[in-house]
Amino acid sequence: MSDQQPRSFGWLILLTALTAFATFGVVALLVNIFERKQEARAPFTKVVDVTEISTDPEPWGLNFPQQYEDYLKTVNDDYTDFGGNHALPPSKLEESPWLKRLFAGYAFSIDYREARGHAHMLADQEVTKRVTDVQQSGACLHCHASIAATYRRIGLEEQGKPADAKSLADGFQQEAVLAGFRSVSTKKYEDIHAELEKTPDGFDAASGDPHVGGAHPVSCVDCHDPETMSIRVTRPGFILGIDKLAKSDAEVPHLPSIQSWRDSGKKGDYDPNTMATRQEMRSFVCGQCHVEYYCANKMTLTYPWSNGLKTENLEAEWDATTFPDGGEFYDYVHKTTGTKVYKAQHPEFELWSQGIHARAGVSCSDCHMPFEKVGATKVSSHWVRSPMMNINKACQTCHKVPEAEIKARVDVIQDRTRALIDRAANAMTEMLDAIIEVQEAGATEEQLKPIRDLQRKAMWRLDYIASENSKGFHASQESARILGESIDYSRQAIAKAYRIDVKPAASEDASPEDSEASTDEKPAIN
After folding, report:
1. Which of the 8 DSSP states describes residue 475?
2. Cα 368–345–216 angle (5° rounding)?
3. 111 CB-contact burial (10 Å; exposed 0-12 / middle 13-18 / buried 19+)
4. pTM
5. Does domain 57-366 have CATH number 1.10.1130.10?
6. Pairing between β-strand 371-374 and β-strand 377-380 as defined by DSSP bridges
7. What is the number of helices (H) and of strands (E) in the chain?
8. Which CATH class is domain 398-498?
């Protein structure tokens, strides 16, 4: 009996200890769960007020340190072959010398480099030779700078309304933004840059003093409402362009809110900020700038979406466009042929719209700003970069295959597109040689007109895919189709050039017999 008592007492102590340990574990788990729930309920702590004039991202970073830290990482991204970043962006002109012939007579023939991250957007533009050596339009700042507050200030001033810091911070004021946008689109780059530096980038509510900190690249306020933090579009070009698209008859199966608006009777204007779904907005915020547009100084910056988002739809709008003075629309006159041609910008949104990911409901942000867990909070990464730098979060959420296989698939698409670009470029340069040859032989403008039309079509399509930063990945079949058309148009132009019957002018010293003999020959260019 005496032996059993100590043994029972020992078991009791052990049971008590296990119970205490289990209780402690359960309590710790419950406390952790409670803390995480509280953290999830309050995803950020408001340290400072941000408003519609908070174009400097640093104050936003006090409230959203994780997002700001990610944004700053775009300064130091590694360079990737297709649309990445680097400390000194490689020159595309050195990598692909044919670009100099494509852009002859245009500023891109002087300086054309790979794209870098958002934090570089303004600084890179300020130092490119396209700006320092050539007179550029202020419309270029539409997407390179945090410019909505400046548009608003200029718009309010034109409307005769107060435009002090407090008034500028009082809501987005879309009508004033649109008015300012139209006012500055045709002005010089340096003039609009100076306007950026005059616009307050902060406001002390207590003292009423504005803070003027200079111009800033695209930042938080350009994609987020400072009151609700919801994503939004702020670029007037996109707001007007997406309304044109909605009012067209173009099929947009990847944009269901537009079809819903059409079905409801197309009342008023299509407003993406109030009518688009959140998933659509996760692409629209990128489509504000990663698009094709006219941004020189002969007319207001324009997105050519009135016929749809395919390359031939955009081309059709440019074909039907005239400048305010009634002149024929063009981006530049090709230096060696004299043909008026179009310059594609960076039509990522348009090409993505033709691809399988868009049809599947995958947004730009799903791949370039994938969701990630930070503590108990699910956030969209603001380290905007190539999905190939973050395959696990950007791709494997949907594609349950090894990273190496995903990378290999992308490489195949981009390598094939690169090969087609090279073939189209070769056809384009041979076309230019053929046109120059018949021009020097005395071809008339009437004879050259159909060839110039083919040149414009061929160069537009080549430039469209070469300037688009996914190298075909956003829509590989569409990219191949467009490049195939470019090659075909170049070859058609060459064939027409060689069929021109150019009669050489008779020499003053030539005898009648020589003239008669020369007319018996067929001096067509071969």
Report:
1. G
2. 65
3. middle
4. 0.85
5. yes
6. antiparallel
7. 25, 6
8. mainly alpha
